[in-house]
Design brief:
Elements: H1 11-32, H2 35-42, H3 46-52, H4 56-71, H5 87-103
Helix pairs in contact: 1-4
């Protein structure tokens, strides 16, 4: 995950960084993304990048966590309420909502 100071950046800057990184990771995969090229594309210095992220894996994890948060409404899943009788129906409802979020 990004360092806590990443949250102090303005929303537009955070969004631009994560969107640009997501595009690169989606197009080239983790191994195919050159961190130096990505940093250049973002218009950041290496020092700025490392101020917010530990490394490329840290950025990737931040992007992946954001993607999951957008798609999978985990705030609606209370693990304490899952029992044998509602386990599959609860997961099914959660996945249906996730699919509808993807299609939106």
């Amino acid at each position: 995950m990004a360092r806590p100071r990443f949250a102090n950046l303005d929303l537009d800057t955070r969004h631009r960084i994560l969107e640009t990184a997501a595009e690169d990771f989606a197009a080239r995969g983790f191994e195919g993304v050159s961190l130096n090229q990505l940093i250049d594309r973002l218009g950041m210095s290496k020092g700025s990048f490392y101020y917010y992220f530990d490394d490329k894996a840290d950025l990737f994890t931040t992007v992946a966590d954001l993607a999951w948060a957008m798609v999978l409404p985990v705030e609606k899943l209370d693990l304490e309420t899952l029992k044998a009788e509602n386990y599959w129906s609860s997961l099914e409802a959660l996945m249906q909502e996730a699919r509808s979020r993807i299609r939106a």
